[in-house]
Amino acid sequence: MPLLAGSLPVAVVGAGFLGRPLLHALPRPALAISRTGTWPEGPVPEGISLHALDLLATDDSTLARTLAPARSLVLCVAAGRSQDRRAVYIDGTRRLLRACLDVPLQRIVYTSSTSALPDIDGWIDDDCPDRPSEPRGQIQRDAEDLVREHCETHAIPWVILRLAGLYGPGRELLRLYRDDPGAPQPGDGMQATNLIHRDDAVQACLAALALDPRHSAVVNVCDDDHRPRRAMFAALASAAGRPAPDWQLPPGPLRGKQVRNDRLQQLLGVRLIHPTHALPDLSPGT
Predict the structure, then answer these.
(1) Which of 32, 91, 124, 190 is deepest in the core (most CB within 10 A)?
(2) Is 236 part of a structural domain of the chain?
(3) What is the pLDDT of residue 177?
(4) CA 169, 163, 219: angle at the middle one, nearest 5?
C-alpha cells in the first residue's frame, strides 16, 4: 500500500532496532532522528537525512526547525537504560508534539507497547479500555493518551501501534532463553507469549502511514502464536541442540494476556510474514 505523495517526507524519531529498517523501507526523502545521530550499519542510505537530537535536551527552536520538512511522523523512541522512562515517553513526546505545532502533519504514528494493556488472563482485543497496574505500562498508556489528545485537538489523523515483544535479526528469540545448567527456570513457564517479528512491525508502521486519513485507531501488533514460555524455551533448546530446560514447578494452565491482532489484519491489511515464532509446536508439558 503506497504512501500518499503529500505525506512525504516521513520523519522517524528513534532510529534504532525498529526505526532503521523502517527508514530503509520508506520512500525517499525521509528524516531520521536519534540521540546519537549515528547509523551503525555504515553510511546513511541515500535520501535519508539523519539528525542528532535529544528530545529532553535539544532546544525547542532546533526541534521545530529539524522537523519542519516532515509531513508524517513516526515516533518509535525507546528509553535507554540510564534514562528516566517517564521523562522520555511523556516529557519527550510532549516536547516533540509541541515542536510540530506549525508543521502540516498528515499522520502521526506512535509505537507503544502491549505493556499498556492490563495484565489479565485471557484474550485482549484492540478496544480494551482497562489500564495496566504496573508503572511501566501506566507510562505507556499515559503517552498514548498524550498523543491521541494532541492529534484530536489539532485534527491530525493518528495510529497508536501497541507492539508486542520485538524480535528479529540481532535480537533473536534465543536471547530470551538464558541457559543456566545449575538451576531450573523460575515458576512453571506457563505464561502466554506475545511477540512480533521486527519485519512485521515494519509492515504495521508502513500500513499505518498509508491508512486512509479518515481513520484513526489503536492497533495491537502481535503475532498469532501465544504458546507458553515453557513450550517456546523447549523449542529454542531443541533448535540449539540442547535439552529442554527444567522448571521449578510442574506445568499448570496457560495464564496471562493473549493479545488479539484483528485490527492489524482487518484495518491495516497486514498479512504477517511471521505469524508464529517460527518454532515447531511442542506440548506445554514438555
Answers:
(1) 32
(2) no
(3) 60
(4) 135
Range of the domain at 117: 5-168+195-221
Place of cell 497496574: 133
C-alpha to C-alpha distance for 2 and 21, rounded to whole angstroms: 17
In a domain, 234, yes or no: no
The arithmetic mean of pLDDT across residues 244-253, rounded, is 92
pLDDT in tens, 2-17: 786 677 899 999 999 9
- Any domain includes 178: no
Which amino acid does the sequence have at 245? P
**How confident is the model over 147-178, as pLDDT tens digits?**
999 999 999 999 999 999 999 998 888 776 66
Q: What are the helix (H) ranges across 28-134?
A: 60-67, 85-86, 93-99
- Dist. CA 197–CA 233, nearest whole Å: 17
**Locus of grid cell 523512541:** 77
Distance CA 267, CA 136 (A): 28
Residues 66 and 58: their CA atoms lie apart, in Å, by 11
How many domains in the chain? 1
Check residue 6 and report its DSSP letter: G
Yes or no: say if 88 and 77 are a contact pair by the CB < 8 Å rule: yes
- Greatest Cα pair distance in the chain: 59
pLDDT attached to residue 285: 37
Spatial CB neighbours of 212, under 8 Å, sequence gap ≥ 6: none
Question: How far is 75 from 148, CA to CA, in rounded Å?
Answer: 13
Torsion of CA 16, 139, 197, 32, to 10 degrees: -30
